[in-house]
What we know:
- The protein is an all-alpha fold and 165 residues long.
- The chain has two domains: 5-76, RNA polymerase sigma factor, region 2, helix turn helix motif (Rna Polymerase Sigma Factor, Chain: A, Orthogonal Bundle); 99-164, Orthogonal Bundle (Arc Repressor Mutant, subunit A), CATH 1.10.10.10.
- The protein contains seven helices and no strands.
- It has helices at residues 5-25, 30-46, 58-76, 99-109, 112-123, 128-135, 139-164.
- The longest helix is centred in the C-terminal third of the chain and has 26 residues, at 139-164.
- It starts with a helix and ends with a helix.
Amino acid sequence: MAPDLTSFRRIVERHQAGLFALVRNLGLDGHACEDVVQDAFLAAFRHQDDFDPRRGSFRAWLYGIARNGARNALRKKRPVPLPTPPDREDASRPVNEPAFVRLDDALAALSAEQRAAFVLAEIHGLTHEEIAAIEGVAVGTVKSRTARARQRLREALRGAIQEAT
Length: 165
């Protein structure tokens, strides 16, 4: 069966922003983010006959492809050595630092599994069942990962608020 390019274009338009946000939230940015999202769409296009609606939603299948691509890209990503920054009198962050930077730091401190479950549930609004299908784990595992992520984020942000006061 010949692929329907018009329908697939609509799929790209519908899911592009969500996939970019997912991949960015999993730790990639810039060209690496664009590459992973483009590769996810190409893989979905090439393997569209592999999609089985009995195993989950199309959205969960597509997000799973992007998540796997992001994980692979992160594994390949090599740390770039930076020069040692000069010493500062106070290495702590300034009190007026934007809250979103602290949230990004707190998200980065989560395990990859907790961060993925939290981002998929809270930012992308996927159900626990969809996340379980993407991650290949039980629904209970997804629930515990998101609960632990929320708790760790609360603790991290509570500490940030206490530092600011």
